[in-house]
UniProtKB/TrEMBL annotation:
Family named by the database record: Belongs to the IFT57 family.
Domain of life of the organism encoding this protein: Eukaryota
Localization per record: Cell projection, Cilium
Name the record gives this protein: Uncharacterized protein
Length: 380
């Protein structure tokens, strides 16, 4: 389901949730239970993300706890040190205990505090709370009487029966007097007093009729047909109900025929399946035996692969030791073939010989000097 469809579904459910919470009187029983009181919900509160997601999640958990208390199930409220994931898990456990089906979404979706998952939980809990409160929905009763003001009434005059005239209470009293005069003043055996009253009543009637016609021209309001009127919608709904009722019998017959055809096809499929099962029974037996042998071979292969892995590990260790030995041999070979120490020794010997020659020269010079000194002393 796309994201737009989920948002639209959440909006529709949220509107129903607000109506059902109003039936539960949540404004007095829930909102006023805290100081400061909880704000009243609007039809998009849990359908969309609010400015403060933490406040939204806290409102959701508190509302769920209150709804669970209505159905005799307790849920600890959200605390600052409590983990929100654990709270969502507790809510799902309580819903499972109440008999709700396992949803397709994860419990972590309740942590965000809005969306289709949150609205689904609230919708189910409000329905359950209304059922626990034994609330029943009845068909609406529409009053056929036209609402009238206390100061204006609608009467139908004898002289103009096809028109409805709006008159004041004083005019109504005059018309009633006229009706009494019609009953008594126009009778054949009426007395003169009655005749005078009849003439006076006719005069009052003519005057009241003129006043009523004048008021009717000023107070009559002609209402045009409104497409948004609930009466129009009700008539359309009744017409659609009649059309659906007429087409229901035909649809039922067609559905019955489709059901019979499907049942006949299912019987044919079952018979064909039994026939094929009998034909392939031997092949199925061979297949099972081959499958068992394949399982044995697969086990042996797994065991061989395990042995091969151990052998590979041993080979890797041996190769590592061999590399170490090769490295040691190469180092020793390099040391044996290296002639630089001999060259240094030769150079050192040559240097010693040169130094010995210099020392002999110095010794000879010193001996000559001593001999010279001795001879000098002897001659003196």
């Amino acid at each position: 389901m796309s994201l737009e469809m989920l948002e639209a579904r959440a909006s529709v459910m949220m509107e129903l949730i607000v109506d059902k919470l109003s039936l539960l009187d949540y404004e007095n029983k829930f909102c006023n239970s805290r100081k400061p009181p909880w704000p009243r919900l609007h039809k998009f509160y849990f359908a969309m993300q609010c400015s403060s997601q933490n406040d939204q999640f806290l409102y959701f958990v508190s509302l769920v706890s209150w709804l669970l208390s209505l159905v005799a199930c307790k849920l600890p409220g959200l605390r600052e040190q409590m983990d929100s994931n654990a709270t969502c898990t507790d809510i799902m456990l309580r819903l499972k205990e109440l008999g709700f089906a396992q949803p397709s979404w994860a419990a972590s979706k309740l942590k965000q505090g809005f969306g289709d998952a949150v609205c689904s939980v609230l919708d189910g809990l409000t329905d359950l709370a209304l059922e626990a409160q034994r609330f029943q929905f009845y068909q609406p009763i529409y009053s056929r009487e036209m609402s009238s003001d206390d100061d204006v009434e609608i009467l139908s005059l004898h002289g103009d029966s096809a028109k409805e005239v709006c008159v004041l209470p004083e005019s109504k009293q005059i018309v009633n007097d006229r009706n009494i005069m019609d009953k008594h003043g126009n009778s054949p055996g009426a007395c003169p007093e009655n005749l005078d009253r009849g003439n006076a009543g006719r005069h009052y009637y003519e005057e009241s009729k003129m006043q009523a016609e004048r008021l009717a021209c000023q107070s009559r309001v002609t209402m045009g047909s409104d497409g948004k009127d609930w009466r129009t919608h009700l008539n359309e709904a009744q017409q659609l109900h009649c059309d659906l009722s007429e087409g229901l019998s035909t649809c039922c017959a067609q559905l019955q025929k489709i059901e019979e055809d499907i049942s006949f096809c299912l019987d044919k499929l079952e018979s064909k399946e039994r026939f094929l099962t009998k034909q392939f029974e031997l092949l199925l037996t061979d297949y099972n035996s081959v499958k068992d042998r394949l399982v044995d071979v697969q086990q042996k292969l797994d065991q061989s692969l395990g042995n091969l892995t151990s052998y590979k590990n041993q080979l890797a260790c041996t190769l590592e030791q061999l590399e170490k030995v090769k490295h040691m041999l190469v180092e020793k070979g390099n040391k044996i073939s290296d002639v630089s120490p001999l060259v240094e020794m030769k150079n050192g010997i040559l240097n010693l010989k040169m130094e010995l020659q210099e020392m002999e020269v110095h010794v000879g010079v010193l001996e000559h000097t001593l001999l010279k000194n001795q001879l000098t002393k002897v001659l003196q």
